[in-house]
Amino acid sequence: MEGQAIHAESSTSRSRPPRPAPSTPSRSQGTKRRQSTPAETHDDSEEDAPPVELDEVSYHISDRSSHQLYVTLRTDVVGVQHYRGLVGRGEYVVLRRQPNNPYDSNAVQVINATGQQVGHVPRAVAAKIAPLMDHNLITVEGRMIGQNLDRSMHYKLKMDMLIYARPSHRYALEPELEWATPGQQGFERMRQAQAAQAAKGKGAGDGGGLSEQEAELGRLLNKLTEVKEEKKFANNVMSVLTADLDVANLPPHPSPPSLASGDLLVDLLPHQSQALQWMVEHENPVLPKKVGDAPVQFWARHAPEGKTQEYWVNIATKTPQVDNPTLGRGGIIADGMGLGKTLTTLALVLATRNSKPASPFSNATLIVCPLSVLSNWEKQIEDHVVIGKLKSYTYHGAGKGIGATALSKYDIVLTTYQTIAAEMPAPESSTPSGKGKKAKTTSASGPLLKVKWKRVVADEGHVMKNTKAKMTQAFGDLQAERRWVCTGTPIVNSAADLGTLLTCLRLCVPLDDPQIFKSLILRPIKAGSGEASRLLQAVVGQVLLRRTKESKDKKGKKLVTLPKIEYYQCPVKLDPETRKLYDDVQVESAKRFQESVATGGTGANVLSMLTRMRQLCLSADMIPADYLETLRNTDTLNAGPSVSISSLQPEQKDKLIEKLRQAIADQEECSVCFDVLDDPRITDCGHPFCLLCITEVINRQALCPMDRHPLSLNSLLELPPDIDLSLVEDNVVKPRTRSAKIAELVRYLKAFDANDKTLVFSQFTTFLDRVAGVLQEEGIPFCRFDGTMPAKKRQQVIAQFQTPVTGDNRDGNPVVMLISLKSGAVGLNLTAASNVFLCDPWWQSAIEAQAVDRVHRMGQRKTVRVFQLIAEDTIESKVLDIQKRKDDLVAKAFEKSGTREVKAAKKQGRFEDLKELFGVAK
Ligand SMILES: Nc1ncnc2c1ncn2[C@@H]1O[C@H](COP(=O)(O)OP(=O)(O)OP(=O)(O)O)[C@@H](O)[C@H]1O
């Protein structure tokens, strides 16, 4: 039975973000292999079948979970003679369920890196793994031991099958998988055998034999995944990943656009000219000329011994092919904030104006950015490009009434992520998105998706951290000859972020495939593979340029010289009334926390309790008047049955919607991923989550992670489309009493020089409303900036704020800008300010650093002063302690010794952190 072929169905494609045509051909075109020989031909249905696509959805869901390698099973790929897919030794292959196979409903296909089927998993093995795969309990992938590159007739090929599952499922799953352990010895004995081997010093994973530095990098990357909220850590990892790049000695552009050339109103700085040349080279990559030349995007020339015909080998995936591989054009500009990525990109457009792209592409560049930086691009063009040298157009809001042909005549078109997402054709709602079917479309795509761009640039491209998000898919759908990402933080949460960027950029084919990136890089890194860490480092070396404010040129001089920056911590004493309320709330919250720990769950709404305590530190009227009472009376253990949203009373629904709206306005985090809510939903028990996070939880355990209330997908509610999330213009709240923090802030503002401008950051827009009320009372001119403001308004606000105070414009010239910490701050130039107030400490020091970077950047002439307001003896001082401890841990993790202890300390640290925040004695 095992050698018998199971025929493929003719329609096997599933949906994944479509690939742009024709510059970046589909995988089957781009990495086409040798023509099949007569011996390899097979039945017609297979011949006409479209190339097999990967299942994007299941990839995404499983990638968000932390699966662990349970066991590796040596097995076969069978029925190889019926398929045309070729594989090399060591190549990773995708194992995909084929439930509609007419001969075996348990069938599992084996698919190579170019999407072609190689064969099937043996029937007996498939029967065991198929039900587990169907229930999303395991993920499997294969690594080829045998190969069929010799083109002789093969019926089966040896393969290692790697079975992954969640660590928390071990208890239930191991009995189901005993048959897969070597000699069916069972997991316990397998572990004992592995431990004995490790004790003999044979090394774990495939990290054995690799240098200590490689192993160390692997360990660091693993920690990155574990401590995903630690952005500083991510920055450090970027430093490690880019440590070997010799950026100081990059050649400058021979004739960059400049004052002298009449294109720019400024000259590029030397590091910007180097970046320009690097970008030009990466838009025109050249395959290695001969055997032995350095690989380009991992493709190397290969000449088999004794044979004359050379072929190509992808040294990352071990994929061979005869036809010339297609190279991606573009890359990632990951320079630190404020080094001039915007200006360099404009210089690229100017420098390549006369090199017309191949037909059918136009000469137009599309720049996609968050709404908050749209006006910054307009301003940079206005400030730095000589009038008439670049024709630019902003395609947003009222500017949308223009067709594809007109757009393609511009040199630069500016737009936002939301706009490109909205231009995607709407899927036909009645079409079931069943397996094997692509959603049909009813509406046509918008003009942006119709233009054949010379290049597309994703500014602040790290926002595309999720391959399933509409804007990521929309960027992938844009048709362009060259593709770029600009971001100071290419890795935000984990190395997977870099994989997403490769996918969006179509670079390093076939590593741009999420499934292959995961198999080759993410999973092995988790398993401690130094080789995979080295591969990740190599990917970075191929596609990314990064310098920071600390980088030095070849003479040892810093790239940019900036004025001094001074940090001050300002302790604030709560007023007696707030102090009393805070202490009561803390005692009650601690009780709730302990109760939930005692019952063994995440129990009570931990995050929401922490948020309320933080709001109390800012201004007591930010929490509901009856909050303490509610806290005392809430029965956290009363879960109740799952409720379908459709059965809720209208007033219950309204309450939930209001709660969700508030959570979004307050930038509350999702308590599954600890990130800002993405595509938010609220449960019938009143907890907000990202849609993807809560869907995954429901699929797994159908209980709310906050209060164990039973949930189903029907218990989720989203905001109605007509609800207005935008900041109510000039929202000003006159607080009943002035909180200690607001009083302290005003004290400083009054003491500053009348010409000094100040940024006031808070995570809570509702707090900024209260500050606004007090500033109004005090007659201190201020403005507000918020991520949800219309583009025109933002531009006006920034322009107004950036106007220096002089004798004649003092009246109404804002000296304070109120700005929310997490929305809208990235990418802004606010150098008119030299004082920064951080009103509430944030867990991620990197977010605060980003805020400070709005002011401490090129163009700043004064010393920058940063004031952190900390409410004494509250959760805020504890947050700082935790932040510091985490920074210490990060520092330690970079020392070579003690990393295992660091890891253990971190795990324990999470729980200890919570105890500390609630004031529960250790
Ligand atoms: N060569 C230059 N001459 C004069 N000013 C410059 C030059 N390069 C950059 N600047 C100014 O420095 C500031 C920062 O530049 P820019 O906004 O391009 O940085 P960035 O790397 O895109 O920053 P971010 O990561 O925050 O988006 C801008 O005000 C810009 O006008």
Automatic annotation (TrEMBL):
Database matches in InterPro entries: Helicase_ATP-bd (IPR014001), Helicase_C-like (IPR001650), HIRAN (IPR014905), P-loop_NTPase (IPR027417), SNF2-like_sf (IPR038718), SNF2/RAD54-like_C (IPR049730), SNF2_N (IPR000330), SNF2_RAD54_helicase_TF (IPR050628)
Residues in coiled coil: none
Family annotation (SUPFAM superfamilies): P-loop containing nucleoside triphosphate hydrolases (SSF52540), RING/U-box (SSF57850)
Pfam families: Helicase_C, HIRAN, SNF2-rel_dom, zf-C3HC4_2
Principal subcellular localisation of the protein: nucleus
Domain Helicase ATP-binding: 322-508
Cited SMART domains: DEXDc, HELICc, HIRAN, RING
Alphabetized PANTHER family for the sequence: HELICASE-LIKE TRANSCRIPTION FACTOR, TRANSCRIPTION TERMINATION FACTOR 2-RELATED
Identification of the protein by name: Uncharacterized protein
Organism per entry: Vanrija albida
